[in-house]
Amino acid sequence: MADFMYIASYILFFATLLYSFGLNYVRYMHMFQLNSYHASEQFKWIGENIGELFKRHIFPVIAPVFALISCVVMGGTLFGEKPVGIFHTDDPFSSYSSFEPYRVSTWDLLMCTSLLLIGVNLCGSKPAKKKLVFTPRVIRMCVTSVILYGAVCALSMIFLWKSGLNLPVLCFWQVFSLFMPMIANLINKPIEKGINTHYINDAKRIINELPNLVTIGITGSYGKTSTKFYLNKLLSAKYNVLMTPESFNTTMGVVKTVRGSLNATYDYFICEMGAKGVGEIKEICDIVKPAHSMITSIGEQHLETFKSVDNIIKTKFEIADCITYGTVFLNYDNDYIRNRAIGKNVVSYGLTNGLDYYADNISVTAKGTSFTVHHGKERADFSTKLIGEHNVQNIVGAIAAANTLGVSFTELKTPVHRLEAVPHRMEIIDKGGSVIIDDAFNSNPSGAKAALDTLALMEGYKILVTPGMVELGEKEYELNKAFGVQAAAVCDYVIAVGEKQAVPITDGLRETGYPEEKAFVARDLNEALAKTEMLETGGLKKIILLENDLPDNY
Question: Cβ(112)–Cβ(63) under 8 Å?
Answer without folding.
Answer: yes
